Amino acid sequence: MHFTVEAQNFAKPHLTAGAIAVDATCGNGFDTLFLAEQVGSSGLVYGVDIQSRAIETVRAKLLEAGTLQQCRLVVGSHSQLNAMIEQEHAGAVSVVMFNLGYLPLGDKTIVTKPETTLAGLDQAFEMLRPGGFLSVLAYPGHRGGQEESQCVADWVARHADVIRSERFQDPGNRNSPVLWALIKVVGAGV
Asked: How far, in Å, CA of 36 to CA of 68, rounded?
């Protein structure tokens, strides 16, 4: 299973032309580009990453694809989504995607952390429209990844009454990535 592609497949039915979406951890920009293609020129994608190198990679990828105009790229932490997403979009976001860990082919000492991820998940959930989709892809195989993955699992369990969730992982591989596909229940708040 290619977990990034699976996350995108789960997100796709929640995306229409004109939708608002968030890539909370841009990395190399695969989810950002996917979201930009789905929402079209009438939509809006916020792309966030703590590393300026990642944002520049994403900018180049979007420019080449002709989708930069529908994206707002921000250097910052996913723990500060509320400060980066316009308040008029609160409660109107269709999809938020998190791909945790470190920047592939980048500095492996710069990783997402449980405390910032939990803050980001709370803020992302508040931004979602009823029926909106949230994906979280965690990597328990790197240093700190197991702890972060468990924090996400605990967050999902605490919100079981306001989300529908599915969890995917290769059962034969303890260090397999873990994908959570979450849908905000209509009428739910944090």
From this structure: 8
